[in-house]
Design goal:
The protein is globular, with a radius of gyration of 25 Å. Helix content is about 80%, strand content about 5%. It has helices at about 10, 20-45, 65-95, 95-110, 115-130, 135-160, 165-175, 180-205, 210, 225-235, 240-270, 285-295, 295-320, 330-365, 370-405, 405-420, 425-435, 445-470, 470-480, 485-520, 535-545, 545-580; strands at about 215, 220-225, 520-525, 525-530. It has a two-stranded antiparallel sheet with strand order 1-2. It has a two-stranded antiparallel sheet with strand order 3-4. It has two domains: about 50-270 and about 365-580, MetI-like (MetI-like fold, Orthogonal Bundle); about 330-365. Residues about 1-15 and about 325-330 have low confidence and may be disordered. Helix 3 (about 65-95) packs across helix 8 (about 180-205), helix 6 runs antiparallel to helix 20 (about 485-520) and helix 8 packs across helix 16. By secondary structure, it is mainly alpha-helical.
Length: about 575
């Protein structure tokens, strides 16, 4: 039987007063009306003519509109990222041959910096919708998508790979359909990690929002009204007041989302922990209690949501029922399927060969001196990346475990961490840069600091998810047997969080290389400061429109990231799958 969206409000919150329930319903109706109005206004703007010289007004009265537009872009990009991640990871797990191609491809996609493909994406989508803002809006959403999708896909893939084998065998013996297996076993197994990485995805989206809402391609400068372009314009004009107001607005949005979205999801996802005894202290959300106390939500769920979900669940379960061999499975049918697979493989090979030929022709004109700069830049950025990852892991692992294993800490510290992680370092970095440049290392230290700000959160949120997923009976057993100190870390905590930690480090590696673009090439107040590195080469080439150098530096960056992932993180990934899993 399909469970309702929310349990009965009488079982959850003692709200007997009709007046209290009415107030909850009024607030919900006002919120829905405000969101609907904002979506309609944004849709109307998307159909407006494209204005190349869009001016960003720094007056505070425009901040609510800019904040709403940016939040809508982030939400659309996140929904696309979530759907992509679920489908991508599920397909990869279902077919080992496909997995051998899809996971390395995911490594490549996460290692390609936004600035490397931004010119082609922007020009292509603007040309697809000539004279309309819609093309530029789609380009911004796609670029935000690239900062959100990869860690979600890696996270769900890791969750599918570490499902206890006895649960998978039980699902197979029960002959669950694909849909029932996905909704009853696979998706619940990955919910906790997906929610933690969703918070990280939103933080990553805010981090790259400034680069996603303003596009500089050679002499052309295109901007979209939004919070990111507001902060970027304020930084260009050295307007400390506007930067402060923009950051306060961003923090207000993050805090609001934490209370109305992430805390309720964390509290709701607590039911999916793999344990046999109930925890003494569970996650709690006041907003979730208000939703459960709402007559409007209860009525809508009982009359519309639950029946519709039940019909959809039954229909998809029937459509995806396991198919067993019959007399209709003729050799001709099998031969046709093999031919279709071979044809698809030939098409993919042809596309790859064409891309390799085009890339070779594009970089053929690069001089030996420029290749030398690319090599030196790759070594310098690799060193900064390694330092940033080491520093990030040194403090995020103990803090993530402390937050994830203590619900009280989670309620108090996690919102603060999310706010700090979501503040775009590019908005405050010019201010910090003035102090960092006075240090002996100059921009080298400043670049490591900015890369650290952009990547340490991937590790932290994954460690929090890993610590939250530790079954309570294991923690109780450790207490009963007086397992404390380093022994507790060695026998319980590190093995439990190891798969999550590897996923966090894997995605942080790609994030660090991406962050190098804005860490090694900084423009503020009409001044540009740069240091040796691949990120600096890519940013400079994108600004000048030097596409051969841009492509060469991007290919080298992708090759280095893939090599590190295959030699280090992938081996640890296999170790996590084979040894450190609950069963």
């Amino acid at each position: 039987m399909v469970q309702p969206l929310f349990p009965s409000r009488r079982r959850v919150l003692d709200v007997e007063s009709h007046a209290a329930s009415r107030w909850v319903d009024v607030v919900l109706l006002c919120f829905i009306a405000a969101v609907g109005y904002g979506v309609v206004r944004a849709a109307a703007r998307w159909s407006e003519p494209l204005a190349p010289g869009t001016t960003i007004d720094l007056s505070p009265s425009h901040l609510p509109l800019y904040a709403g537009l940016s939040t809508l872009r982030m939400a659309i990009a996140y929904l696309i990222s979530l759907a992509f991640s679920l489908a991508y990871a599920r397909i990869a797990v279902a077919n080992r041959n496909a997995e051998r191609v899809m996971i390395p491809l995911l490594d490549i996609l996460q290692s390609i910096p936004i600035l490397s493909f931004m010119p082609g994406v922007v020009l292509g989508l603007v040309a697809l919708f000539p004279g309309r803002t819609l093309g530029l809006e789609l380009a911004a959403i796609l670029l935000i998508f690239t900062s959100q999708a990869w860690n979600l896909a890696f996270s769900f893939h890791q969750s599918l790979r570490t499902i206890p084998p006895e649960l998978g065998e039980a699902a197979t013996m029960s002959r669950l359909s694909f849909w029932r297996r996905f909704t009853r076993l696979e998706l619940p197994s990955g919910v906790i990690a997906l929610i933690a990485n969703s918070m990280m995805s939103w933080a990553g989206g805010w981090f790259f929002l400034m680069a996603s809402e303003q596009f500089t391609i050679g002499p052309k400068s295109l901007r979209l009204p939004g919070l990111g372009s507001y902060l970027a314009t304020a930084a260009e004009h050295d307007d400390v007041r506007a930067i402060t107001l923009g950051l306060l607005t961003l923090i207000a949005i993050i805090v609001l989302l934490d209370h109305v979205l992430w805390r309720p999801l964390v509290a709701w996802a607590d039911r999916f922990k793999l344990e046999q005894s109930s925890a003494a202290d569970v996650a709690h959300s006041t907003f979730l209690d208000f939703l459960r106390a709402s007559r409007l939500v209860e009525w809508t769920g009982a009359r519309f949501v639950t029946p519709a979900w039940h019909r959809l669940d039954v229909a998809l379960a029937r459509a995806s029922r396991p198919r067993f061999a019959t007399t209709f499975d003729s050799p001709a049918r099998s031969r046709a399927m093999r031919l279709a697979r071979y044809a698809a493989l030939v098409v993919v090979i042809m596309i790859v060969l064409w891309g390799a030929f085009a890339a070779t022709r594009e970089v053929a004109g690069i001089s030996a001196r420029q290749w030398g700069e690319v090599g030196v830049g790759a070594a310098a950025t690799f060193l900064r990346t390694a330092i940033a990852l080491a520093l990030g892991a040194a403090w995020t692992i103990p803090l993530g475990v402390a937050i994830g294993t203590n619900p009280r800490w989670a309620r108090r510290v996690q919102p603060v961490v999310q706010v700090v992680a979501s503040v775009p370092a590019t908005a405050v970095f010019p201010v910090l840069l003035l102090a960092l440049l006075a240090l002996p290392g100059g921009l080298n230290i400043a670049a490591v600091a900015l890369m650290l700000l952009g990547t340490q959160w991937y590790v932290l949120f994954n460690v929090i998810a890993g610590a939250m997923s530790i079954p309570s009976e294991l923690k109780e057993a450790a207490v009963n047997y007086h397992v404390t100190g380093w022994r507790r870390w060695r026998t319980l905590i590190l093995p439990a969080i190891f798969p999550y930690l590897v996923t966090g480090m894997l995605t942080a590696t790609g994030g660090a290389w991406n962050a190098s673009i804005i860490a090694e090439y900084v423009s503020f107040g009409g001044r540009t400061v740069r240091t040796v590195g691949l990120g600096s080469l890519i940013a400079g080439a994108a600004e000048r429109g030097d596409f051969p150098l841009l492509l060469a530096a991007t290919l080298v960056m992708a090759a280095v990231v893939i090599a590190v992932n295959r030699l280090v993180w992938r081996r640890l990934y296999v170790l996590a799958e084979s040894r450190y899993r609950l069963q």
